[in-house]
Predict the structure.
Amino acid sequence: MLHCNGGFFYTGHTDNLKRRIAQHESGEVPGFVRDHLPATLVWSEGFPSRIEALAAERRLKGWSRAKKLALIRGDWAEISRLAKEKAGLRQAQPERGGKTSPVPIA
């Protein structure tokens, strides 16, 4: 997970983290990160397979900003609390569709 200019988080997966970070830093890869440089690596984890890495990427992209910040801090108690809080909200409210945009750091 990268923390990008403007306070945005970018989540992705790669087979070679060092190379991919260098590509992002140089602006070689078109897209979100290049448009929001500089970017700093704030969290990474290794996975046994590309399929598991992609599944983790998709899961993290659905997380709230607060939950991502807790992950970066390694605060598993807060991640659990936020997950339970969200689960409670899902039970209380009907599900709504649509995508959300990244939220800048205040």
Q: What stands out?
A: The chain is about 50% helix and 10% strand. The chain has two domains: 1-62, 63-94. The CA atoms of residues 25 and 86 lie 34 Å apart.
